[in-house]
Amino acid sequence: MIKEKVKTVLFRIFKLMFHFISKFPAKRKLVIFESFHGKQFSDSPRAIYEYMLEHDLPYHMYWSVDRRYAHLFEERNIPHIKRFSWKWLLLFPRAEFWVTNSRLPLWFPKPKGTTYVQTWHGTPLKKLGVDIDEVHMPGTSTAKYRENFVKEANKWDYLVSPNAYSTAIFQRAFQFQHEVIESGYPRNDDLYNNNHPSHIQSLKRKLGIPGEKKVILYAPTWRDNQFYGKGRYKFDLKLDLDALRNELGDEYVVILRMHYLVAENLDLTGYEGFVYECSKYEDIRDLYLISDVLITDYSSVFFDFANVKRPILFFVYDIDEYRDKLRGFYFDLEAEAPGLLTKDTGEIITEIKRLQSANFQLDRQFEAFYDRFCYLEDGKASERVVNRVFLS
Q: What DSSP element (H or E) covers 336?
């Protein structure tokens, strides 16, 4: 009890200090990056950071990192500061630029001299922000969730968008009033700039995957109403790994990539050499490049994977509940999905075998999807964002 009271008091003091330090003039050329609440070196913040590093732009750049994941940055010698440490407190509130892909804690005031760049983390299929009819997440209500979302979005100076479709949704769902940079997603640049056999083989070696094996990537999203607590979601793996191994194991391996909010530690004992757990792997972009087939559900990963123009399957065993009760969709997935919708593992196996024998070709529906959502992607989105934010 006393320990909790001490923690509460210290947190209040920390917040007061953050507010106080944020009143000081911003440190010129200081940029703080963060990805998925400091848990990853990934996504569009990483792509922007790497572009600025590669072009030797005169900025002091640090990553804000959850201390549990600091080793990922230490191993790469990436300049970083541990989230909520004293050094972080002295730098974060005085940075001239914040670049992140998720909402920051609501209690962070945006300093007057800070430019806040929000890259977001996906093209929306499921409803966002104020567009959600009913919120089922722990620790909030529908009204509070919407209010907090809009408060945070009002702090953003720039919002990065992958296409015109997303821009319209972001502006409405976030009630965003500032500048949208409609550039394509920086995180997808790598899918154009490094999509060649030698790089793909080097990534397979890094992950310990045999070079001759084809790869199935399973990357589902989280369910709002299945949780352990705030920010910690359950996930029941409905994919039959035994059936997949029996039918496809001679030619394929499976990569599992859970959403960053999913708290499950899956027991994969007995599946060694067939199933690879890559939920904590630093950046999903590498997994896209090595994968021959994507299986997903309502995650935005399929918008990104479409850039490599390989087969996508949708494992949507609970589509009626998810679409009609939990979130709702912005477009008709059943009519417009760039791949087959399946409800059990048997259908998935049948379709993968069919695709293999038919030599996958883009059909009209896939091409229409690509033209609508991926038309800006060309490997230069990071350049466009950096030119607008840092060099204009």
A: helix 333-336
Burial of 77 (0-12, 13-18, 19+ CB in 10 A): exposed
Packing angle of the helix pair 241-248, 345-358 (nearest 10 deg): 30
> How far apart are the C-alpha atoms of 174 and 118, rounded to whole Å?
12
- Per-residue pLDDT tens digits for 34-74: 999 999 999 999 999 999 999 999 999 999 999 999 999 99
Q: Check pLDDT > 50 for residue 116.
A: yes
Measured from the Cβ of residue 384, the count of other Cβ atoms closer than 10 Å reads 17
DSSP assignment of 22-73? TTSPPEEEEEEEESTTTT-S-HHHHHHHHHHHHTT-S-EEEEEE-GGGHHHH
> To which residue do tokens 């009609």 refer?
324
Q: Would you say 305 and 216 are in contact if contact means Cβ atoms under 8 Å apart?
A: no
Q: What is the pTM of this model?
A: 0.92
Phi, psi of 202 (to 5 degrees): -65, -35
CB crowding 254-283: b at 16 or more within 10 Å, else e: bbbbbbbbbeeeeeeeebeebbbbbbebbb
Rounded Cα–Cα distance for residues 367 and 317 (Å):
26
Overall size of the chain counted in residues: 392
